[in-house]
Amino acid sequence: MSRESEADIPADAVLPGALPEELRAELVAFRRDLHMHPELGNQEFRTTAAIKERLEKAGLRPRVLAVGTGLVCDIGEAPADGRGVFALRADIDALPIPDAKTECAYRSTVPDRAHACGHDMHTTVVLGAGLVLAELHERGLLPQPVRLIFQPAEEVLPGGAVDAIEDGALEGVRQIVAVHCDPRVDAGRIGLRPGPITSACDRLEIALNGPGGHTARPHLTTDLVTAAARVATDVPAIVARRVDTRSGMAVTWGRIESGHAPNVIPQHAELSGTVRCLDIAAWRQAPDVVVAAIDEVANLHRAKSEITYVRGVPPVVNDPVVTELLRDAMTVRRGAETVESTEQSLGGEDFSWYLEQVPGALARLGVRTPGERTVRDLHQGDFDADESAITVGVELFTAAVLLDAAG
Questions:
Q1: Which domains does the chain have, with CATH numbers?
Q2: What does the longest C-alpha to C-alpha distance in the chain come to?
Q3: What is the tens place of the pLDDT at every residue in 339-392?
Q4: 240-283: per-residue pLDDT in tens?
Q5: How far is CA 218 from CA 80, 229, 264, in A?
Q6: What is the pTM of this model?
Protein backbone atom coordinates (compact mmCIF):
# COMPACT_ATOMS: atom_id res chain seq x y z
CA MET A 1 0.00 0.00 0.00
CA SER A 2 2.17 2.81 -1.26
CA ARG A 3 0.72 6.15 -2.27
CA GLU A 4 2.82 8.94 -3.66
CA SER A 5 -0.02 11.45 -4.07
CA GLU A 6 -3.14 12.64 -2.33
CA ALA A 7 -5.39 11.36 -5.09
CA ASP A 8 -7.26 9.01 -2.76
CA ILE A 9 -8.08 11.76 -0.25
CA PRO A 10 -11.25 13.82 -0.78
CA ALA A 11 -10.20 16.97 -2.59
CA ASP A 12 -12.32 19.24 -0.40
CA ALA A 13 -11.40 17.57 2.88
CA VAL A 14 -10.05 19.73 5.67
CA LEU A 15 -6.64 18.11 5.89
CA PRO A 16 -4.05 18.77 8.59
CA GLY A 17 -1.87 20.56 6.07
CA ALA A 18 -4.52 23.26 6.07
CA LEU A 19 -5.02 23.25 9.83
CA PRO A 20 -6.38 26.69 10.73
CA GLU A 21 -3.99 28.83 12.73
CA GLU A 22 -6.68 29.33 15.33
CA LEU A 23 -6.83 25.58 15.97
CA ARG A 24 -3.05 25.26 16.00
CA ALA A 25 -2.84 27.95 18.66
CA GLU A 26 -5.64 26.34 20.66
CA LEU A 27 -3.88 22.98 20.67
CA VAL A 28 -0.61 24.50 21.86
CA ALA A 29 -2.49 26.29 24.64
CA PHE A 30 -4.29 23.07 25.56
CA ARG A 31 -1.00 21.18 25.78
CA ARG A 32 0.56 23.88 27.95
CA ASP A 33 -2.42 23.80 30.30
CA LEU A 34 -1.98 20.04 30.71
CA HIS A 35 1.75 20.53 31.21
CA MET A 36 1.10 22.99 34.02
CA HIS A 37 -1.35 20.67 35.77
CA PRO A 38 0.11 17.13 35.61
CA GLU A 39 -1.78 14.31 37.30
CA LEU A 40 -0.58 10.82 38.19
CA GLY A 41 -2.12 7.61 36.94
CA ASN A 42 -5.77 7.06 37.95
CA GLN A 43 -5.84 10.61 39.35
CA GLU A 44 -6.29 12.44 36.03
CA PHE A 45 -9.65 14.02 36.93
CA ARG A 46 -8.83 17.55 35.75
CA THR A 47 -7.24 16.24 32.56
CA THR A 48 -10.23 14.03 31.81
CA ALA A 49 -12.64 16.92 32.40
CA ALA A 50 -10.68 19.21 30.06
CA ILE A 51 -10.68 16.66 27.24
CA LYS A 52 -14.35 15.88 27.74
CA GLU A 53 -15.34 19.55 27.70
CA ARG A 54 -13.51 20.21 24.41
CA LEU A 55 -14.94 17.14 22.69
CA GLU A 56 -18.45 18.02 23.79
CA LYS A 57 -17.92 21.55 22.46
CA ALA A 58 -17.22 19.92 19.09
CA GLY A 59 -20.58 18.15 19.26
CA LEU A 60 -19.18 14.76 20.29
CA ARG A 61 -20.35 12.47 23.10
CA PRO A 62 -17.31 11.18 25.02
CA ARG A 63 -17.74 8.51 27.70
CA VAL A 64 -15.60 8.57 30.85
CA LEU A 65 -14.16 5.17 31.70
CA ALA A 66 -15.54 3.21 34.63
CA VAL A 67 -12.33 3.77 36.63
CA GLY A 68 -13.25 7.47 36.78
CA THR A 69 -10.50 8.89 34.58
CA GLY A 70 -9.77 8.59 30.89
CA LEU A 71 -12.45 8.42 28.23
CA VAL A 72 -13.43 7.09 24.83
CA CYS A 73 -15.21 8.99 22.09
CA ASP A 74 -16.60 7.73 18.79
CA ILE A 75 -16.78 9.87 15.67
CA GLY A 76 -19.26 8.46 13.16
CA GLU A 77 -21.26 5.26 13.29
CA ALA A 78 -19.83 1.76 13.00
CA PRO A 79 -20.38 0.49 9.42
CA ALA A 80 -23.07 -2.08 8.76
CA ASP A 81 -20.58 -4.25 6.86
CA GLY A 82 -18.77 -5.00 10.13
CA ARG A 83 -15.47 -3.56 8.88
CA GLY A 84 -14.83 -2.05 12.28
CA VAL A 85 -13.54 1.18 13.77
CA PHE A 86 -10.16 2.86 13.36
CA ALA A 87 -8.83 3.86 16.82
CA LEU A 88 -6.41 6.58 17.92
CA ARG A 89 -4.95 6.16 21.40
CA ALA A 90 -3.35 8.65 23.80
CA ASP A 91 -2.13 8.24 27.38
CA ILE A 92 -2.91 11.09 29.77
CA ASP A 93 -0.97 10.57 33.02
CA ALA A 94 2.18 12.29 34.29
CA LEU A 95 5.20 11.23 36.35
CA PRO A 96 6.02 11.63 40.08
CA ILE A 97 9.12 13.76 39.49
CA PRO A 98 9.74 17.52 39.85
CA ASP A 99 9.74 19.80 36.82
CA ALA A 100 13.31 21.04 36.44
CA LYS A 101 12.66 23.57 33.66
CA THR A 102 13.54 26.79 35.51
CA GLU A 103 12.86 29.21 32.64
CA CYS A 104 9.59 27.93 31.25
CA ALA A 105 6.33 29.88 31.42
CA TYR A 106 4.26 26.69 31.39
CA ARG A 107 6.32 24.55 33.81
CA SER A 108 4.43 22.35 36.23
CA THR A 109 2.54 24.10 39.02
CA VAL A 110 2.22 20.84 40.98
CA PRO A 111 5.15 19.94 43.27
CA ASP A 112 6.96 16.72 42.34
CA ARG A 113 4.74 16.14 39.30
CA ALA A 114 5.70 16.61 35.66
CA HIS A 115 4.74 15.58 32.15
CA ALA A 116 8.27 14.35 31.58
CA CYS A 117 7.29 11.60 29.15
CA GLY A 118 5.28 13.66 26.68
CA HIS A 119 1.83 12.31 27.48
CA ASP A 120 0.50 15.86 27.29
CA MET A 121 1.71 15.90 23.68
CA HIS A 122 0.13 12.52 22.91
CA THR A 123 -3.17 13.70 24.37
CA THR A 124 -3.14 16.95 22.41
CA VAL A 125 -2.32 15.16 19.14
CA VAL A 126 -5.25 12.75 19.49
CA LEU A 127 -7.55 15.61 20.55
CA GLY A 128 -6.47 17.68 17.55
CA ALA A 129 -6.96 14.79 15.15
CA GLY A 130 -10.35 14.16 16.69
CA LEU A 131 -11.43 17.76 16.17
CA VAL A 132 -10.36 17.69 12.52
CA LEU A 133 -12.07 14.34 11.92
CA ALA A 134 -15.22 15.55 13.71
CA GLU A 135 -15.40 18.49 11.30
CA LEU A 136 -15.01 16.12 8.37
CA HIS A 137 -17.82 13.98 9.76
CA GLU A 138 -20.05 17.02 10.17
CA ARG A 139 -19.49 17.84 6.49
CA GLY A 140 -20.16 14.24 5.44
CA LEU A 141 -16.54 13.69 4.42
CA LEU A 142 -15.35 11.20 7.05
CA PRO A 143 -15.07 7.90 5.17
CA GLN A 144 -14.93 5.63 8.20
CA PRO A 145 -15.73 5.77 11.93
CA VAL A 146 -12.97 6.65 14.36
CA ARG A 147 -12.62 6.03 18.09
CA LEU A 148 -10.52 8.28 20.30
CA ILE A 149 -9.10 6.52 23.35
CA PHE A 150 -7.68 8.74 26.09
CA GLN A 151 -6.22 6.18 28.45
CA PRO A 152 -5.21 6.77 32.08
CA ALA A 153 -2.36 5.27 34.08
CA GLU A 154 0.11 4.22 31.41
CA GLU A 155 2.91 4.62 33.96
CA VAL A 156 1.22 2.29 36.49
CA LEU A 157 1.91 -1.43 36.01
CA PRO A 158 0.36 -3.34 34.33
CA GLY A 159 -0.93 -0.17 32.66
CA GLY A 160 -4.26 1.59 32.34
CA ALA A 161 -4.73 -0.05 28.95
CA VAL A 162 -5.93 -3.15 30.80
CA ASP A 163 -8.76 -1.18 32.45
CA ALA A 164 -9.65 0.57 29.19
CA ILE A 165 -9.89 -2.75 27.35
CA GLU A 166 -12.02 -4.27 30.12
CA ASP A 167 -14.32 -1.25 29.79
CA GLY A 168 -14.89 -1.91 26.10
CA ALA A 169 -12.41 0.50 24.52
CA LEU A 170 -11.57 -2.06 21.83
CA GLU A 171 -15.08 -3.30 21.10
CA GLY A 172 -15.59 -3.08 17.36
CA VAL A 173 -12.06 -1.74 16.77
CA ARG A 174 -10.35 -3.07 13.65
CA GLN A 175 -6.95 -1.46 14.14
CA ILE A 176 -5.31 1.09 16.41
CA VAL A 177 -2.43 3.58 16.21
CA ALA A 178 -0.52 5.73 18.67
CA VAL A 179 2.56 7.94 18.95
CA HIS A 180 5.23 8.30 21.60
CA CYS A 181 7.48 11.35 21.89
CA ASP A 182 11.11 10.76 20.94
CA PRO A 183 13.60 13.48 21.99
CA ARG A 184 16.24 11.93 19.72
CA VAL A 185 14.20 12.63 16.58
CA ASP A 186 13.74 16.13 15.15
CA ALA A 187 10.30 17.70 15.15
CA GLY A 188 8.79 17.30 11.70
CA ARG A 189 9.90 13.67 11.50
CA ILE A 190 8.71 10.32 12.79
CA GLY A 191 10.45 7.03 13.49
CA LEU A 192 8.91 3.72 12.43
CA ARG A 193 9.74 0.07 12.88
CA PRO A 194 7.70 -2.99 11.90
CA GLY A 195 7.70 -5.72 14.52
CA PRO A 196 8.88 -5.14 18.12
CA ILE A 197 9.51 -1.44 18.86
CA THR A 198 9.58 -1.52 22.68
CA SER A 199 10.47 -4.18 25.21
CA ALA A 200 8.63 -6.03 27.92
CA CYS A 201 9.07 -4.54 31.37
CA ASP A 202 8.29 -6.33 34.65
CA ARG A 203 9.03 -5.30 38.23
CA LEU A 204 10.90 -7.40 40.77
CA GLU A 205 10.88 -7.10 44.57
CA ILE A 206 13.03 -9.44 46.69
CA ALA A 207 13.28 -9.82 50.45
CA LEU A 208 16.13 -11.90 51.88
CA ASN A 209 16.03 -13.03 55.50
CA GLY A 210 18.44 -14.68 57.93
CA PRO A 211 19.07 -14.99 61.68
CA GLY A 212 21.60 -12.13 61.81
CA GLY A 213 24.75 -12.08 63.92
CA HIS A 214 28.13 -10.48 64.56
CA THR A 215 30.51 -9.69 61.72
CA ALA A 216 33.22 -11.48 63.73
CA ARG A 217 31.38 -14.79 63.22
CA PRO A 218 29.81 -14.84 59.72
CA HIS A 219 30.31 -18.62 59.56
CA LEU A 220 27.76 -19.11 62.36
CA THR A 221 24.93 -17.29 60.64
CA THR A 222 23.71 -16.20 57.23
CA ASP A 223 25.97 -13.51 55.83
CA LEU A 224 23.01 -11.63 54.46
CA VAL A 225 24.83 -8.68 52.90
CA THR A 226 27.01 -11.04 50.92
CA ALA A 227 23.93 -13.03 49.94
CA ALA A 228 22.23 -9.86 48.69
CA ALA A 229 25.37 -8.85 46.82
CA ARG A 230 25.56 -12.25 45.14
CA VAL A 231 21.90 -12.08 44.14
CA ALA A 232 22.54 -8.64 42.66
CA THR A 233 25.54 -9.80 40.63
CA ASP A 234 24.88 -13.47 39.89
CA VAL A 235 21.18 -13.49 39.01
CA PRO A 236 21.52 -11.25 35.91
CA ALA A 237 24.40 -13.44 34.68
CA ILE A 238 22.49 -16.69 35.29
CA VAL A 239 19.38 -15.40 33.54
CA ALA A 240 21.44 -14.27 30.55
CA ARG A 241 22.69 -17.83 30.12
CA ARG A 242 19.29 -19.50 30.40
CA VAL A 243 17.48 -17.70 27.62
CA ASP A 244 18.33 -17.08 23.99
CA THR A 245 20.77 -14.17 23.88
CA ARG A 246 18.75 -12.64 21.06
CA SER A 247 15.79 -12.18 23.42
CA GLY A 248 17.67 -9.37 25.19
CA MET A 249 16.39 -10.37 28.62
CA ALA A 250 18.06 -8.21 31.27
CA VAL A 251 17.68 -8.03 35.05
CA THR A 252 18.72 -4.61 36.35
CA TRP A 253 18.60 -3.40 39.95
CA GLY A 254 17.44 0.01 41.08
CA ARG A 255 17.55 -0.45 44.86
CA ILE A 256 19.41 -2.57 47.41
CA GLU A 257 19.16 -2.05 51.17
CA SER A 258 20.44 -3.93 54.19
CA GLY A 259 21.79 -3.31 57.67
CA HIS A 260 22.39 -0.35 59.96
CA ALA A 261 25.68 -0.97 61.77
CA PRO A 262 29.18 -1.86 60.50
CA ASN A 263 29.66 -4.78 62.91
CA VAL A 264 26.19 -6.34 62.77
CA ILE A 265 25.15 -8.88 60.16
CA PRO A 266 21.53 -7.90 59.41
CA GLN A 267 18.48 -10.12 59.43
CA HIS A 268 16.85 -8.55 56.41
CA ALA A 269 17.83 -7.26 52.97
CA GLU A 270 15.79 -5.95 50.05
CA LEU A 271 16.40 -5.60 46.32
CA SER A 272 14.18 -3.98 43.71
CA GLY A 273 14.66 -3.94 39.99
CA THR A 274 13.22 -4.57 36.57
CA VAL A 275 13.20 -7.40 34.08
CA ARG A 276 13.24 -6.24 30.48
CA CYS A 277 12.97 -8.40 27.41
CA LEU A 278 12.91 -7.73 23.67
CA ASP A 279 11.20 -10.97 22.67
CA ILE A 280 7.60 -11.75 23.56
CA ALA A 281 8.11 -15.54 23.70
CA ALA A 282 11.01 -15.16 26.14
CA TRP A 283 8.96 -12.67 28.18
CA ARG A 284 6.31 -15.31 28.76
CA GLN A 285 8.85 -17.59 30.46
CA ALA A 286 10.69 -14.81 32.30
CA PRO A 287 9.04 -15.26 35.74
CA ASP A 288 10.01 -18.92 35.98
CA VAL A 289 13.57 -18.29 34.81
CA VAL A 290 14.19 -15.29 37.08
CA VAL A 291 12.60 -16.75 40.22
CA ALA A 292 14.54 -20.01 39.83
CA ALA A 293 17.82 -18.08 39.53
CA ILE A 294 17.08 -16.03 42.65
CA ASP A 295 16.20 -19.12 44.69
CA GLU A 296 19.38 -20.88 43.63
CA VAL A 297 21.66 -18.05 44.70
CA ALA A 298 19.75 -17.38 47.93
CA ASN A 299 19.80 -21.06 48.93
CA LEU A 300 23.51 -21.29 48.23
CA HIS A 301 24.08 -18.59 50.85
CA ARG A 302 21.46 -19.98 53.28
CA ALA A 303 19.18 -16.99 52.88
CA LYS A 304 15.41 -17.32 52.79
CA SER A 305 13.91 -15.48 49.85
CA GLU A 306 10.51 -13.87 49.35
CA ILE A 307 10.01 -12.88 45.73
CA THR A 308 7.32 -10.62 44.32
CA TYR A 309 7.34 -10.72 40.53
CA VAL A 310 4.97 -8.08 39.13
CA ARG A 311 3.95 -8.61 35.54
CA GLY A 312 4.28 -5.40 33.56
CA VAL A 313 3.72 -5.13 29.85
CA PRO A 314 4.73 -7.23 26.84
CA PRO A 315 6.67 -5.67 23.96
CA VAL A 316 4.82 -3.42 21.53
CA VAL A 317 4.86 -5.42 18.29
CA ASN A 318 3.94 -3.22 15.34
CA ASP A 319 1.83 -4.81 12.64
CA PRO A 320 3.72 -4.45 9.31
CA VAL A 321 0.61 -3.40 7.35
CA VAL A 322 -0.41 -0.71 9.85
CA THR A 323 3.20 0.47 10.09
CA GLU A 324 3.25 0.89 6.33
CA LEU A 325 -0.01 2.83 6.54
CA LEU A 326 1.66 5.32 8.90
CA ARG A 327 4.64 5.54 6.56
CA ASP A 328 2.33 6.33 3.63
CA ALA A 329 0.39 8.88 5.69
CA MET A 330 3.55 10.74 6.67
CA THR A 331 4.90 10.54 3.13
CA VAL A 332 1.70 12.04 1.70
CA ARG A 333 1.68 14.89 4.20
CA ARG A 334 5.39 15.68 4.61
CA GLY A 335 7.46 13.63 2.17
CA ALA A 336 9.29 10.31 2.36
CA GLU A 337 12.40 11.97 3.79
CA THR A 338 10.52 12.76 7.03
CA VAL A 339 10.25 9.07 7.95
CA GLU A 340 13.23 7.34 9.52
CA SER A 341 13.81 3.85 10.81
CA THR A 342 14.02 3.52 14.57
CA GLU A 343 15.56 0.91 16.83
CA GLN A 344 13.79 -1.27 19.34
CA SER A 345 13.73 0.42 22.72
CA LEU A 346 14.20 -1.26 26.09
CA GLY A 347 11.46 0.97 27.47
CA GLY A 348 8.03 -0.47 28.18
CA GLU A 349 4.69 0.83 26.85
CA ASP A 350 1.25 -0.51 27.74
CA PHE A 351 0.03 0.15 24.20
CA SER A 352 1.21 -3.45 23.80
CA TRP A 353 -1.95 -4.71 25.52
CA TYR A 354 -4.10 -3.32 22.69
CA LEU A 355 -1.89 -5.04 20.12
CA GLU A 356 -2.41 -8.36 21.87
CA GLN A 357 -6.00 -8.13 20.56
CA VAL A 358 -6.01 -6.02 17.38
CA PRO A 359 -3.37 -5.06 14.80
CA GLY A 360 -1.84 -1.64 15.19
CA ALA A 361 1.34 0.39 15.29
CA LEU A 362 3.19 2.88 17.47
CA ALA A 363 5.19 5.67 15.80
CA ARG A 364 7.93 7.69 17.44
CA LEU A 365 7.02 11.36 17.16
CA GLY A 366 10.04 13.63 16.81
CA VAL A 367 9.99 16.41 19.42
CA ARG A 368 13.57 17.70 19.33
CA THR A 369 13.92 21.22 17.97
CA PRO A 370 16.02 20.92 14.79
CA GLY A 371 19.55 22.06 15.50
CA GLU A 372 19.23 21.73 19.27
CA ARG A 373 22.36 20.30 20.85
CA THR A 374 21.10 19.84 24.39
CA VAL A 375 20.70 16.15 25.10
CA ARG A 376 17.33 15.52 26.75
CA ASP A 377 15.67 12.25 27.60
CA LEU A 378 12.33 10.93 28.76
CA HIS A 379 11.56 10.65 32.48
CA GLN A 380 13.88 13.54 33.30
CA GLY A 381 12.69 16.77 34.88
CA ASP A 382 14.06 19.00 32.12
CA PHE A 383 12.21 17.17 29.33
CA ASP A 384 10.23 19.37 26.95
CA ALA A 385 8.95 19.07 23.41
CA ASP A 386 8.99 21.22 20.31
CA GLU A 387 5.30 22.04 20.00
CA SER A 388 5.39 22.06 16.20
CA ALA A 389 5.26 18.27 16.62
CA ILE A 390 1.59 18.61 17.60
CA THR A 391 0.65 19.57 14.06
CA VAL A 392 2.80 16.76 12.69
CA GLY A 393 0.99 14.22 14.85
CA VAL A 394 -2.43 15.58 13.84
CA GLU A 395 -1.42 15.36 10.18
CA LEU A 396 -0.14 11.81 10.63
CA PHE A 397 -3.27 10.50 12.29
CA THR A 398 -5.75 12.30 10.06
CA ALA A 399 -4.03 11.21 6.86
CA ALA A 400 -3.79 7.63 8.18
CA VAL A 401 -7.55 7.53 8.74
CA LEU A 402 -8.27 8.85 5.25
CA LEU A 403 -5.70 6.71 3.47
CA ASP A 404 -6.84 3.58 5.25
CA ALA A 405 -10.44 4.18 4.19
CA ALA A 406 -9.35 4.85 0.61
CA GLY A 407 -7.25 1.69 0.47
A1: 16-196+316-406 (3.40.630.10), 200-313 (3.30.70.360)
A2: 84
A3: 999 999 988 999 999 999 999 999 999 999 999 988 788 999 999 999 999 999
A4: 999 999 999 999 999 999 999 999 999 999 999 999 999 989 99
A5: 75, 15, 10
A6: 0.89
